[in-house]
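> run fold Fe2OG dioxygenase domain-containing protein
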Amino acid sequence: MESSRDHSTEKKVFDEAKTGVKGLADSGITEIPAMFRAPPAILASLKAAPASQQVRIPTVDLKGGSVQCKNQRRNVVEQIGEAAEKWGVFQVINHGIPLKVQERMMEGIRGFHEQDTQLKKQFYSRDHTRNLLYYTNIDLFSSSAASWRDTLICYTAPDPPTSQDLPPVLREIMMEYSKEMMNLGELVFELLSEALGLNPNHLKEMDCAKCQMMTGQYYPTCPQPDLTLGLGKHSDFSFLTVLLQDNIGGLQVLHDQAWIDVPPLPGALVINIGDLLQLISNDKFLSAEHRVIAHGSSKARVSVPCFFTPFKKANPRVYGPIKELLSQHNPPKYRDSSLTELSEIFTSKEITTSRLLHFKI
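> ok
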């Protein structure tokens, strides 16, 4: 009880400083604060023997981002469908997004987090009615331990921010990259629709690609990376997540009860199936649990996840298992729920526990 109160006070003081984890790292600390120390069971999993390095998440070639050839498309649909069913995560290469655009996006996110602290403070908030905000750990006050990262969030669709809403350091590239992500997301939703045996536009017509949230994660150098996590185990509250990561690494996916490293592949993007897509596919597709290991590299790790999600935005639309997928042998496994209810449940507690069970029939 006393320790819990101490952590609560520590978190409150930390949050009110509005300087984030980067502020701690810049202060020259040699030991991480107690609020960042992960529970023993989690630390034990970090020390467990790594899975065979021969195991790799699937990689799918998108043929330049169009996949128009009938035979090629059938092959890509099969690969994506199998990856979505067995892994819930895969990498895409040859996706049509120029490497230069990816690099500029990474530079913009790094530039935001590494700019003068006073310039950043004006964006520090936990109010998700804002189009753009930055903070440390969405579950800071509900988690057993904080993770070693800072986060920038920008809601880019369906109501994109104005140019003046965005920080100058990433003003141009944010919206350019958002458009590239929308094009890629719509293509992947088409391929996933076909993998489900549906019309290519089925998931798009369900508005799965309508809401987009761009995120810039910043993982500073950690003085004790063996005592904390960059991001705890979780699955995404999204239909789909498209991740751009730098070359430092640290991303791991849970597969067959083993943590599998997802080493950076130049130019590739990592795609996660989200909880909402698992729900509407009636468990045909798997929402992959994943985490990020803290690091002691001399340079901060940066990643840019793009979530196709109505995260924390009120939305009365109701979703449940897709009717065309149901039959006597495949009855619905989840009840119909509004996006507002789904969002409230998924963001109400620590993000390391699955929420889909709450909606099981």
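The CA atoms of residues 198 and 324 lie 8 Å apart.
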